Amino acid sequence: MTSSASMPSITFGITTFNRPRLLRRLIESIRTRYPHVRILVADNGSQHATLPDDVQVLHLPFDCGLSRARNALIDALETEFLLVLEDDFQFTDETDIEPLWRVLRSDPEIGVAGGAIRGCDGRVTCYALDIEVCRTTMRVREAPHRIAVTPCGIPYRLCDMVWNFALFRREMLREHRWVDALKIGEHCPFFYEVKLARRWRVASCSLPKIYHVPDRRPTHYLKYRRRAADYFRAYLNARGVEHYERVLPYHYEDDATLLPPVIVLAVGHSGTSVVTRMLQKLGWNLGRPVDKVFAEHIEIRKLNRQVIDGGQLDTTAARQALGALPMPWALKDPRFVQTLQHWLPLLAELEIKPVLLRLRRELSATKGSYHRRGAPGDVDRRIENLAASRDHLYDLWPWKRLTLEYEKIAAAVSMFDLDRFEASQDRDPGEVEGPSFTPSPRAIAGDSRAPEFGLTAAEFIDLNVAALENDSSMLASLQLDSAGANALADARAAFQLDSSFGRPMDPQEEGPEPLSMQLDSSVGSPAAADAGFALDSGVDSPLERAIRRELRRIPPPTANESHDGSD
């Protein structure tokens, strides 16, 4: 999509405030690359640029704010998509909008796709963030590197928040407007409201890059800009959020490292399904088609069965199956303890170097699990042979490897149900399995007998590998025994994984709605719940009124502002 003739469905929308020189520079750069695209400018300043006749300008009341300016763009939008821009951007040869458009077209649930920013130092900033709220604390952190790929080969990441260089669907913007009361400091509030509604996905694609123009900000401009913290605090107060933290706010593109592919190596009945679902929650893809009960790739499992039956791997089919897996992938099949050596030459040929994750469980507990299910034959001898094969393959593995003990996972997850935890004190921890991994409402609500241990949403998702899609309000009172905290720390140290949370990245994966922070408006404040805040913060909504009440405490700018309309 190198010409505007191929983009009749996109409007370029620019918000501007008293920076006419930068605005002209941006529009000139757009016209160089896209001569005929529709450009719409929402100007709420007092100093106006002289622009070409084919640029439509919406002259708004002075200092009505960024949110109202963006909403004016929505009201004037006639195309299917809106590219949101700020006046201090500049198009370059790297600013190709097509990848953003392709990402939106690849998944109808993605409502916005954001690009990357190149600074004056030449570095590219990838702004793909997750927003996490637990109790009364909001944390903004870099989204995990869960890479998905469109059918035409464009990689992207799902996250909660992107730059203001982003392509929006008109349908999404009609459902989610900016809060007019937030003249500035509106960025995180907008995306958090989208997240709360759980209707649209947000994607980040670093292929399109726009240049951020360095510019000296005069005093008369800064006095309006510096209100951002006050306006953002007003929003947080209205939402009942007392604390705000930025953890890894963004990364530079050349600092980024992708998650490696993983092969789970374990004897059956050792918690492989649980661990694989944990990996999926943390951003690894299971591929398609997948057995949702056992978290196994069906084609890989079929190939392993053929190896066991015939002693040879179908390398053509295996190469095709591996090539179709979206990075980063995780493969789990207990049959790997018998077949992995057949896959090694193909992995080396394809230059794929997966991390081998060995999962170990006490042999007595594994044997007992098979016996309880009535497994035929000499189960004990068979389990011992499979465990020996697992360890031999692990020792021969030529690339990175790590070991995880099943008992540590079981100990941590059992904390979700206090009844089962108390019962487990008289049992071998290796016997904790099956239903013990399903959290009970009682355990999540907390218990006076257990010392309080606050669990973040990221840690919650690390452990919650089963259900709990519906009652998100239980997050607010989640507690964990200190022993569970230690077990969790041990498990996470063994995994050496990022604790960031989010929606699994496989765009073709089916299944229940993932727990990408399914918080409702009651989180953080009972008063907020009583007020009945609407998730879509339109004009005159309870949220809008609450923000306006908070804003009454903020003094207006005091310096004299020139309204002479000069350029």
TrEMBL record:
Single annotated GO MF: transferase activity
Statement: the UniProt record of this protein carries the keyword Cell membrane: no
Keywords for the protein's UniProt record, in alphabetical order: Transferase
Domain of life of the native organism: Bacteria
Any Pfam family the entry gives: Glycos_transf_2
InterPro entries, alphabetized: Glyco_trans_2-like, Nucleotide-diphossugar_trans
Start and end residues of each Glycosyltransferase 2-like domain: 13-175
Protein name: Glycosyltransferase
Region spans: Disordered: 425-444, 500-536
PANTHER family: BETA-1,4 N-ACETYLGALACTOSAMINYLTRANSFERASE 2-LIKE (PTHR15046:SF3), GLYCO_TRANS_2-LIKE DOMAIN-CONTAINING PROTEIN (PTHR15046)
Biological source species: Roseiconus nitratireducens
